[in-house]
């Protein structure tokens, strides 16, 4: 009941007082920028989508452009350390030096393209966070101090996870460079160190998705609490019949319609960003598979690249998991799973007056027919079941990918 009371409080900041990041000269940062600053302080400038200062965003985009052009120009400049490393790698995997140069050149061009896609992803994420729908959602959810503390804690946790993953990527890259026995391993790591900025841009989306999912999940939880409070305090069935007055189910129906509008607005705001993110992950995975095919004469790197591609594809699916929890809480039909649909169906056998029962049937018809949750045009409704199916598909494809790479190496 306390949570239902907190959820039902009206926002203290009306729309005409809400800070908007629309470039119209407003001095106040947008709600998301203020939230990021309160959560991680000065480090909020490292999140391009969470910063309202255009200088920060321009700096991110300039760095990504520089990294992209650096990757394209590196094969043409051909520094001495790069030539020596390519020759050593060619001798190790059994390729000619010219073929190894072509592999490297194609790889860096594809990486440059993916880097430019990361730039577009950050720009789209920043635009989504500054949209009216997201700003309104943030304002409505942060009125209560308890909810605000929860979002700040979740944002700090998400940011910490992204930083740790970036450090893990750098560590793995350094270890692999050492184990590869290249003539200039340190120079190779330093030469490709700007690419870590692109990896950080990709990891930023984890924080982006988790924050939006936390905001939307809290909205759904508020409605769940309100719906659950309908039967609170009714120890006997006849008590429920007396407590339910005409108009209550219609009120819940209207509140559910408001919830659907919020979820639809959020889905539309993040669709472009998520689409680019999925294309970057897919492109990176295909590049790793192509490199594994090129290294088929050496089983260890070939298998490693296949497993890395599999891990990357699965990571792209797991990144959507917070969005899937929202959809499942809205409309899951699985037995024993917590959802609005299962909760509403709990009242189907309870006694009601004819008028109240008619309203209840209207509410049930609406909640069954109206799809609720996060909808992405390229994925449909994002549910745990759909994500599990994609993971299982990758698991089934993995042995085939390993057979095609390691098997060809054994024949060669």
UniProtKB/TrEMBL annotation:
Keywords from the named record: Membrane, Transmembrane, Transmembrane helix
Domain of life: Eukaryota
Transmembrane segments: 58-77, 103-125, 158-176, 188-209, 269-292, 304-330, 391-409
Name of the molecule in the record: ABC transmembrane type-1 domain-containing protein
